[in-house]
Design brief:
The protein is mainly alpha-helical. The chain has 5 helices and 2 strands. Keywords: Membrane, Transmembrane, Transmembrane helix.
Length: about 160
C-alpha cells in the first residue's frame, strides 16, 4: 500500500515538474527570447530546437525517476531486455515518452503506473509544443504572396467595375 502511494505521488510530482518546466520554456520562448535579435526564419528554427531540448530534459527527468524508483525505492523491476545502465533507463523513458512502446523493455510493479503517467503527460506536452510552434510559425514565418491566375484577376476587375457603376 505504501509503495503504491509513493508511486502515485512520484508520478504526479513528475507530471507537475515536467509541465511546469515546459510552461517556463514556452513562456521564455514567447517573451524572453524576443530580446535576442534574430531573423524570423532563424527564430522559428531556434524555437523548434529549444522545444526539442525541453522534451529531452523531460525524458531525462523521467529516466532518473525510473532509476531511483527501481533501485532505491524498489517500486518494481523491468522485464525483457536488461535495464542496468543509465542509458537503459533513458531508452525506456524515450520509448514511453514518445508512446512508441516497442515492448523489448517493460515495467513491472508500480513502475507501470509511472510509465502510464509519463505517456499521458508527454502526449499533452508534445501536443502543446506542436500548437505553440504552429502559432509561432503563423506569426514569424515569411510567407510569399502567391500569384493569382490571370482569368481570376480579370474577373475581379470586371466585378469591381460593375460595383462602381
Amino acid at each position: 500500500m505504501i509503495a503504491m502511494l509513493v508511486a502515485v505521488v512520484l508520478a504526479v510530482g513528475l507530471a507537475l515538474a515536467t509541465s511546469s518546466f515546459h510552461y517556463a520554456t514556452l513562456r521564455w520562448l514567447s517573451g524572453g527570447m524576443a530580446r535576442i535579435a534574430l531573423q524570423p526564419g532563424r527564430r522559428v528554427l531556434c524555437i523548434v530546437f529549444v522545444v526539442l531540448l525541453a522534451h529531452v530534459g523531460e525524458v531525462v527527468l523521467y529516466a532518473a525517476a525510473y532509476g531511483f524508483s527501481s533501485r532505491v525505492l524498489d517500486l518494481g523491476r523491468f522485464g525483457g531486455l536488461a535495464v542496468e545502465r543509465p542509458l537503459d533507463f533513458l531508452y525506456f523513458s524515450i520509448v514511453t515518452y514518445t508512446s512508441l512502446g516497442l515492448g523489448d523493455v517493460f515495467p513491472g510493479g508500480h513502475l507501470r503506473f509511472i510509465a502510464g503517467v509519463e505517456a499521458l503527460n508527454s502526449l499533452l506536452l508534445i501536443a502543446w509544443s506542436g500548437s505553440f510552434i504552429y502559432l509561432a510559425m503563423g506569426r514569424l514565418w515569411p510567407w510569399q504572396r502567391c500569384a493569382e491566375p490571370a482569368d481570376r484577376r480579370a474577373g475581379d476587375r470586371r466585378s469591381r467595375k460593375g460595383d462602381q457603376e
